[in-house]
Amino acid sequence: MKKIFLLLMVAILFLPAMSAKDIYAYIVDNDGPVTNIRNAPNGKVVATLLTKESFVVELLRAKGDWFQIDDEIERYGDNEGEIELEGSETGYWIHNSLLMFTVAGDPTGCLRTKPSRKSRAVKMSPSTEMSFRPIDIQGNWVKVVTTDGNYTGWMHKSKICYNPLTTCP
């Protein structure tokens, strides 16, 4: 009995969490001079980022149309470096309409009907714009919608290109 308990404890400790791990997106905000970061979905603004700069954020979890992001943000361009957000004890949130990424490599089969490589691929036109906005997260999968709104599906994190300045292989 003791062995079974120990095996169960080890399994629980090493099971992957159901939150995002290393899933990133870049910020695209064309409405005004700053992007607001809030302390909760629709909450108080606790930080602002200049829209003329490029930022990449790590997505931690989704709640409705909002994503909680890590407090460390990567800034690209002339002022490249890491920024640490401060001022919130409840986390940092951004609306999903401000988040975007592209597909890394060949887009064939990048969208699935369910968060599994075994699920059916979403058929997309070859002329489809391959930019996506996140909708939800489940483990290593992100539910996305194309920026033109024509296709929705699940994408594995290995297919995400989150670099706002270059394309990924």
Q: Sketch the major β-sheet.
A: 11 strands, antiparallel
The number of E-state strands comes to 13
> How much helix, percentage-wise, in residues?
under 10%
Number of helices: 1
Helix-strand string? HEEEEEEEEEEEEE
Our Rg estimate from Cα atoms comes to 18 Å
Q: Kindly report the average pLDDT value.
A: 86
Poorly predicted ranges: 1-19
Shape: globular
- Classify the beta-strand content into a percent band: 35-45%
Class by SSE composition: mainly beta
Termini separation comes to: 50 Å
Please describe what this structure looks like:
- With 169 residues, the chain is mainly beta.
- 8% of the residues lie in helices and 40% in strands.
- Strands 1, 4, 5, 6, 7, 8, 9, 10, 11, 12 and 13 form an eleven-stranded antiparallel beta sheet that branches. The protein has a two-stranded antiparallel ribbon with strand order 2-3.
In short:
The protein is globular, with a radius of gyration of 18 Å.
List descriptors.
single chain; 169 residues; mainly beta; eleven-stranded antiparallel sheet; two-stranded antiparallel ribbon; 13 strands; 40% strand; globular; disordered N terminus
